[in-house]
Amino acid sequence: MPNTVPPKNRLQIKVRQFRPRELHRVFLTRWADLAEEACCPNVFQHPAFILPVLHSLSSGADCWLLTGEDRETGQLCGLGLFEQTRASKALPLPHLVAMRSHHSYRDGLLVRKGAEDDFFDALLDFLTIQQEDWFGIELGRMNLDQPWALKLREQAVPYGCSFRLTPKFESPAVDLSALGDETLTDRCSSSRRKSIRKNRNRLAKQGEIGFQLHTEPQAALAAAERFLELEHASWKGERGTSLLSDPHETIFAREMLTSFVTRGNLVVSELTAGEETAAVAINLKMGDWLYAFKIGWNDEFASASPGMLHELELVEAVRREMPEIRWIDSCAHADSYLSGIWPDRLVMGEGLLSVTTLARGTGKLMANVRKLKHWATERIRQESAEEVPAVN
């Protein structure tokens, strides 16, 4: 049976729009609860991440929160934080774009498990009937395999809307439930396993190898400081892109880390050689997902590839000590070194919700133009390569 639009007076959820500066303690508690109970966890949509961004990296002046609240209980069932834009490459009409910083690696909506149908009905009703300012919503860095995305695409149709999903790249990840009794090293090629053994031997010459997951607040924050120092001592510090290079970045990092550790969602992983830190990483936990946020390593141990050794050890430590975790998301691009050692992939891309006939047609046209441009660029590149004379 095809989906139908429910009568407005039967909508269980009410959608509200307001500025982030209007938040109060009760709402923040409900927001955090929604993030923990969402059908698809997203640590970058948690108030412990968003508020430090707003405090230090963004004024929030052009931001809007769209929330869906149960009319009877007041429970928060859905939420998205957006910025207004007059036009973009995806949609040259006024619309909402997911609010993000350069540290926000995943876009999306928070939707409470079990409330997907009701929230999307309320959201689509709001966008198509109750407001006239925006022609759609654009999400630029989202996991396209999330069930809520596929559900929204289906549910948008009877409202005369479309939710176009455009794959861009595959991000390395680990599905822990699929590993069974194997380790990641077991799944590597013989040449890769040989390389791993050599690197471990090189590191072991510097001292006994150790690995820890720091979750207790004092230990986790101390390890996080070691990460900040290592990152600043690396090429990122030289280029001025480390978190300690800019006061605003530093304030963001420390506020965010403190917020997550207070909630028990900060996991700092550390690879050591004797008394020295070889590599240390900031990981953020949400639901049954662990997000590998940032990693730094000691350049003194560069010949042992400490970053790669750390990521192998991380997976095994999480399997032993955090059985509730089902997925580890690298938050990395397809060309990351993790592609060679983490076996699974998350399809990342863009989502464009068009809520008028004009927006649907324009969004489709722009998507086709971008495809044509990509095809032409690749064609020119191939022809140029073919024209290069062979060197005898």
UniProtKB/TrEMBL annotation:
Return the InterPro entries for the record. Answer: Acyl_CoA_acyltransferase, BioF2-like_GNAT_dom
Read off the Pfam families from this record: Acetyltransf_6
Q: What is the lineage of its organism?
A: Bacteria, Pseudomonadati, Planctomycetota, Planctomycetia, Planctomycetales
Protein source organism: Rubinisphaera brasiliensis (strain ATCC 49424 / DSM 5305 / JCM 21570 / IAM 15109 / NBRC 103401 / IFAM 1448) (Planctomyces brasiliensis)
Q: Cite the BioF2-like acetyltransferase domain residue spans from the record.
A: 190-335
Domain of life of the organism in this record? Bacteria
- Identify this protein by name: BioF2-like acetyltransferase domain-containing protein
